[in-house]
Amino acid sequence: MSKVYFASARVKKWTYADSMPGKLERALKEVNLSAHFGKDEWIAVKTHFGSEGSHRVVRPVFLRKVVDALKGIDAKPFVTDTVRIKGLDYLEVANQNGINSLSVGAPVVLGDGLYGNDNIMIKAGEILGEIAVASLIHDVPAMVVCSHVKGHIQAGYAGAIKNVAMGGISSSHRHCGWKCGRGAMHTIGEGRLLWDEEKCTLCLQCEETCPLEGIKFDNEMFGYNEDDCWRCGRCARVCPEGALTLQGDDERFMKALAEAAMSVLSTFKANKVLYINFLTEIQPECDCMPAADVPVMQDQGILISDDIVAIEQATIDLLLNAKPLPQSAADKPERQSGDILFELSKKPYLIQIEEAERLGLGSKHYELIEI
Predict the structure, then answer these.
(1) Which has more confidence, 190 or 46?
(2) Maximum Cα–Cα distance for the chain, whole Å?
């Protein structure tokens, strides 16, 4: 049975030791980092840099605590993410969100290069076949995955599996494009965008939210660069009239997430990856969106484990006991269940965890140890 360490967000004593940064420090000591990582070992601290307008990421103060703890065992950490928008722009977004070398105490770099196509093809499962793992993540010997728990456009729930899968995979490959990158997870078939002219009100939100600036309206007619499109689905998500749709299959997508996570993790030796889930500012959408809504449930705390399946199951168990926050997207009288994230997305997100367990990435059975 895997151990999952839990630091509650509740503060019952007004002391630093009972603060969330203080509890994170204690939890990292309990985990015994030296059992996972060695002296002078390079360690990727994988997180999500957010977007311009989407600021509810893992806070720099927490990343700094992770970096300092790794330095405390004489390891050599750096903070990284893969390209979500143009590389230089993404580094500037990270800086705007407070993630830089001064704040986190370590270099902040892109895992798949400035152009997002620095990657290595790795064998995946039945759905994906092969997929492009970011070269830096492929090559580094160890990793700490710092995930901001939240909702997601297609995954419904986004935690460690989504962070490893989509965050460890490049947006595209320099030869086979999106079909070898994240787009392989997002879509089925050719994954074409479908536009309903009758529903469209020409609000242009889809054009504004495209990270590649690939959508254009000429003479009030929708058009996009199909070859370069990442199939991220942001345009369809923000369309208020449902005039844009991106073909997809929920079950296939969830299983593909687990497959991609397996591919990324296959590049590491046993016991070289640690997972930290931050159940804070739990918003309904991914951090890659151009805005961040108010949290849909109260902060729960921080979880740490070396088992990706166990930490995801423990996270879900905590979220299922949470109540919707007033004046948030979850504050709806017509809610049919206590599963807040499912009610928001109607996505069968548990499939990703079940598939990860089936693929041998971990176990849903865990022991919760409160700090």
Answers:
(1) 46
(2) 63
Q: Do domains 2-183+250-370 and 189-246 have the same CATH topology?
A: no
Cα separation, 46 vs 111, in Å, equals 9
Distances (CA, A) of 364 to 8, 145, 251, 304, 358: 21, 18, 19, 14, 10
* C-beta of residue 128 within 8 angstroms of C-beta of residue 169: no
Scan for tokens 């005039």, then name that residue: 243
CA pair distance 210, 225, nearest whole angstrom? 11
pLDDT band of residue 189 (cuts 50, 70, 90) is low
| Total-model pTM | 0.92
CA quadruple 273, 147, 312, 123: dihedral, nearest 10: -50
Rounded Cα gap, residues 95 and 80, in angstroms: 12
Considering the domain 189-246 in this protein, what is its CATH number?
3.30.70.20
Q: Which pLDDT tens digit goes with each residue over 236-256?
A: 888 989 899 887 788 999 999
φ, ψ of residue 59 to 5 degrees: the values are: -65, 145
Residue type, 18: D
Rg (CA), the chain: 20
Cβ–Cβ < 8 Å for 296, 282: yes
- Quick count: other Cβ atoms within 10 Å of Cβ 270? 7
Nearest C-alpha neighbor of 284 from the set 341, 368, 352, 216: 341
Half-sphere exposure of 287 (CA within 13 A, CB side): 28
What would the pLDDT profile of 9-48 be if each residue is shown by its tens digit?
Answer: 999 999 999 999 999 999 999 999 999 999 999 999 999 9
**CATH number assigned to the domain covering 2-183+250-370:** 3.40.50
> Distances in Å between the alpha carbon of 240 and those of 153, 201, 294?
14, 9, 19
Q: Which among 98, 93, 139 is positioned nearest to 118, based on CA atoms?
A: 139
Q: Where are the domains of the chain?
A: 2-183+250-370, 189-246
CB 28 within 8 A of CB 36: no
Both tokens assigned to 168: 């460890």
Burial of 147 (0-12, 13-18, 19+ CB in 10 A): buried
Q: Is 132:284 a contact under the CB 8 Å cutoff?
A: no
